[in-house]
Amino acid sequence: MATKGKGKDKGKASTKGKGAEKAKDRRKGKKPAKDKALDATAKAAKAKAEKAGDAATMTSWTDALRIGPDFSLAALDAESTPGFSGDKAAGQLALEGIDEKLAELQERLYAESKGEGKRSLLLVVQGMDTSGKGGIMRYVVGAFDPQGVKHTAFKAPTAEERAHPFLWRITNALPGPGEIGVFDRSQYEDVLIVRVHDLVPRQQWSRRYAQINAWERKVAASGTTIVKVMLHISAEEQKARLTERLERPEKHWKFNPGDLDERAFWGDYMQAYQAAFDKCSTDVAPWHVVPANKKWYARLAVANLVLEALQKMDPQWPVADFDVEEQKARLAAMP
């Protein structure tokens, strides 16, 4: 009996000793073998996903999503994931690390403006209700330092705005040197909702396509890179998202009965978007259409579109306007 008891005590002491050793290792920053194995598995999965993502992206995101002369919105599958053949898990892993790249390029763009730089970037986001514009603002634009972002969500024009030409309020919202501007809806509302609901005579809104093109050429010539994105969801997906908002009390605040009124004009809106693509996708400001039924893909796609635009801009750190070595010597001499 005594021998068995000692054996049990010895086993308990041994287990306790191992637990103490594990706790000691954690305090020293060491990870238990089990945790290390999990880390290794996670790293392997991430590497596999990244490899799959690299293989899937045969061209740049910009090339994969930029519309061509024969583009048909009606023929685009909103469930598709152009440029990426991975699943949701792979997409989420591929999105990791992009935030850091976006933040660094934003800082360089902002710093460049402190020298003689005049450049900026403008992201235009369009889409039907529930298409995921809010998610783009949180997950993509959220990667930037808000001090360097000029965000504008365009609503119905005010009385003052209606007293001016339709591009007046749009021009006032443009980003300054070193800034990243974000338009949640944009000048295109004046050839979308205005066209669908006949808010102004046809002769008036039909002239706006050429006016928008001329305005965008001027903006681009001033040093602003324009990235135009339309988030494309299917009517079925929109119905599912609206249904979710109605069924979940915590989502009621996001529901607007007016969304159902606009949904009744779905076909008219698709025609209006197609016309905007046909008439206003130019070399200086091309349109990119992102299938958005899969939210994770839409966020990954827009993040990469912005990343590629900033990489192409390649903003540079400004050269110091003081003697660096002299300032180093002064600092070293200080207590």
Supply the CATH class: Alpha Beta
CATH homologous superfamily grouping: P-loop containing nucleotide triphosphate hydrolases
Strand order of the largest sheet: 2-3-1-4-5
- Globally, the shape reads globular
The DSSP helix count reads 16
The low-pLDDT segments are 1-38, 48-58
* Total of domains: 1
Structural class estimated from helices and strands: alpha/beta
Mean model confidence by pLDDT: 87
Largest sheet report: 5 strands, parallel
- Architecture (CATH level 2) name: 3-Layer(aba) Sandwich
**Would you count the extended β strands for me?**
5
Roughly what percent helix? 40-55%
Radius of gyration: 27 Å
CATH topology grouping = Rossmann fold
Walk me through the structure:
With 335 residues, this protein is α/β, with parallel strands linked by helices. The protein has one domain: 3-Layer(aba) Sandwich (Rossmann fold). The protein has 16 helices and five strands. The chain has a five-stranded parallel sheet with strand order 2-3-1-4-5, with helices on both faces. Helix 2 packs across helix 4 (88-95) and helix 4 runs parallel beside helix 15. The longest helix is centred in the first third of the chain and has 26 residues, at 2-27. The relative contact order is 0.15. The model is unreliable at 1-38 and 48-58 (pLDDT under 50).
